[in-house]
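BUG-733 | component: ligand-complex export | severity: low

The export step for MGD jobs runs without errors, but we want the raw record kept on the ticket for reference. Input record follows.
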Amino acid sequence: MSHASRTAPRICPLCEATCGLTLTIEGTTVTGARGDRDDIFSRGFICPKGASFGGLDADPDRLRVPLVRGEDGELREASWDEAFDRIAARIPALVEAHGPQAVGVVLGNPNVHTMAGSLYPPLLLAALRTRNVFTASTLDQMPKHVSSGLLFGDANAIPVPDLDRTDHLLLIGANPLESNGSLCTAPDFPGRLRALRRRGGTLTVIDPRRTRTARLADRHVAIRPGADALLLAAMAHVLLEEKLTDPGVLAEYLEGVDELAAALADFTPDAVAAACDVDAATITALARELAAAPTAAVYGRIGSCTVEHGTLASWLVDVLNILTGNLDRPGGALFPLSATARAPREAASGKGPVPGKGFALGRWASRVSGHPEAKGELPTAALAEEIETPGEGRIRALVVLAANPVLSAPDGDRLDAALAGHLDFMVSVDPYLNETSRHADVVLPPPPPSQSAHFDFAFNSFAVHNQVRYTRAPIPLEDGRMDESEIHARLILAVSGMHGALPSAVDDLAIATAITKAGAPKELAGELTGRSGPERRLDLMLRLGPYGLTLEQLLAHPHGIDLGPLKPRVPEILRTRSGRIELLPAPIAADLPRLRRALGDRPAPLVLVGRRHLRSNNSWMHNVGSLSGGSNVCTLQVHPDDAARLGLVDGATVRIESAGGGIEAPAEITDTVRSGVVSLPHGWGHSRPGTRMAVAAAHPGANVNQLLDGTLLDPLSGTAVLNAIPVTVTPSP
Ligand SMILES: Nc1nc2c(c(=O)[nH]1)N[C@H]1C(S)=C(S)[C@@H](COP(=O)(O)OP(=O)(O)OC[C@H]3O[C@@H](n4cnc5c(=O)[nH]c(N)nc54)[C@H](O)[C@@H]3O)O[C@H]1N2
Ligand SMILES: Nc1nc2c(c(=O)[nH]1)N[C@H]1C(S)=C(S)[C@@H](COP(=O)(O)OP(=O)(O)OC[C@H]3O[C@@H](n4cnc5c(=O)[nH]c(N)nc54)[C@H](O)[C@@H]3O)O[C@H]1N2
Ligand code: SF4
Ligand SMILES: [Mo]
């Protein structure tokens, strides 16, 4: 028997590279995926995860219908109506009795990879009016948002390296050959790095591990983990001291250069060399090379963010871009302009600085530990204590959208217990019954990606080339499924006392609000096209956006529309109160003494860092057989010298202990980690009962975040310290 097979385009949602895929479909099954050679951005690139799209899509462990907890305490399959009835019966009553803070919201990483996750959570938060908001950002890039907020006045104004045109790339704590890039959307990142080398450019990588990316570099500096802010401060010091700074056209919009020089006076290459374990001559050379390059871009990611001085390091990355005149110029680091961004402010340029609203930190604080908010969020590391600790404002109900904090956040055991024992009600929107969703009273499963449309609201604004692409669902929604956008819309109605209203009411409200905000004519709402609420909202954003596009135009170009290379956007993007780039913002200046004290710290003899594997994706892709196994395993990488000193044998189980806890994993002896550093990947630990992920459970691995107790944070951003953790390692008895 043979089915007629067809192909359909689908943008890959599995990482930030946003590759265009061509799916082969037989009936209602995806039987193959290859790179879409006509895609205007990815030009046929695909990685092993994208190639496994079909397997991931058809995973038999994916939930098909909602689960609702019965009176016996067990989860059982239920209808959509029953699931939303239950939510409507519980959440508004809890808010009524205990106030809006009683509901916490957790937003996980895949929200930035779905249309629903981009369009509806802001409306959910507005409906709930809770300050108990926790997201993956405080396990990830919040330091960058804070540094951008302080420097530019807009937490979302994040410059990206101009990969295709730069002459010199300094890459810090990022491994795009495995991760495919982050806060820098660049399909075929590896090919773009090779092209940089081919056109005579240079690549420098700073990473305690000799990663696949480091192996591609002209120079690899194996820094001691956690010391990047010191190294970057010393580089800035060299630029200022040797008068190598040349901010160029930015000068008119810069504030605080002299103050910066004074603040960094102590951070000489000699002063930081021991802490970084990088000699002073190398640090000086790194600074001089950066200044000498015709164009250059400094780019830092996970290894520069999820560390004790994450905000300072993120700030210094852009300080270096600014001082060398590379910020906002072709070949340097530029601000993308996506098709759905708000249209640029009118003619700010030429008129000198225009004051903006500015960026405020710590407008409120978390209830238990008093952690300051950042960008309206509280540290995810503090979620468990907000659920457990009695008192007014305690979280009694939790709405979890696409997140698995039991594995992805510090001290999963504690959070696991808090979810099990201290919540009155929990909802998860998740395709899997996993370590977190198993605690929910209602689980709402989105359809597989083949049955969902795709648009990258988030990643287009971090893309190395301005472009726009939209793909409709390649396969119609299967009977009994609900589109994730409709799930979100119904959830919003259910928690806000409007249960039973049409989900389109949520979209209509969002459209009306956006039109009013933009000062556009009301009639525009009637002109929007699209088959669904999300499509009409996309159409509106495109029309109001900087290129004045429409949904129809996107549909007419299934492989994308090229919007040109990145262009300078200063001063139009600046939103600081001064209207300038504030080089030494007060919160940063106040945190520098802490960095100065780190100069005197005696380094821990052994510290732990993370790593990612090309065929992984945080905590949720270990259930796809074709992606598991091989080198995608949860081993502790140890340098041979450390292994000899500690008596560790390759393949044998070792015990890893830190201030926050202890776990066991097999040792993998390799000189790709520097001595004094061990590495364990995250997202493992699939050994808890009550989950439904058979493949993952067969090779559970250990949860690295059990080494943490959640108290170690970058203070300015509330981001958990997940790298450079002091540990001891011993052979397991
Ligand atoms: N030690 C250590 N810990 C880390 C990190 C690290 O480097 N080291 N990295 C951190 C980083 S950068 C991040 S972003 C976080 C990620 O941590 P989380 O935000 O918790 O994300 P994931 O672990 O990817 O889990 C995603 C959840 O979403 C579900 N999901 C998948 N697709 C969809 C979908 O289409 N819709 C919905 N509704 N749900 C979906 C999955 O089943 C899973 O339950 O982990 C952090 N944790
Ligand atoms: N295959 C795959 N791709 C992914 C993901 C995945 O899980 N798997 N996750 C996605 C997500 S959510 C994100 S946020 C991105 C992250 O994208 P990347 O930032 O590229 O992530 P990693 O591959 O973890 O690279 C971080 C590097 O930092 C190094 N490092 C650790 N500590 C330090 C330090 O103190 N200093 C320096 N200089 N380096 C240090 C590590 O050795 C590691 O090589 O990847 C995304 N893409
Ligand atoms: S690089 Fe990322 S977006 Fe491209 S195919 Fe792989 S997982 Fe998908
Ligand atoms: Mo992330």
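Assignee comment: Attached the raw record above. The first helix runs from residue 48 to 51.
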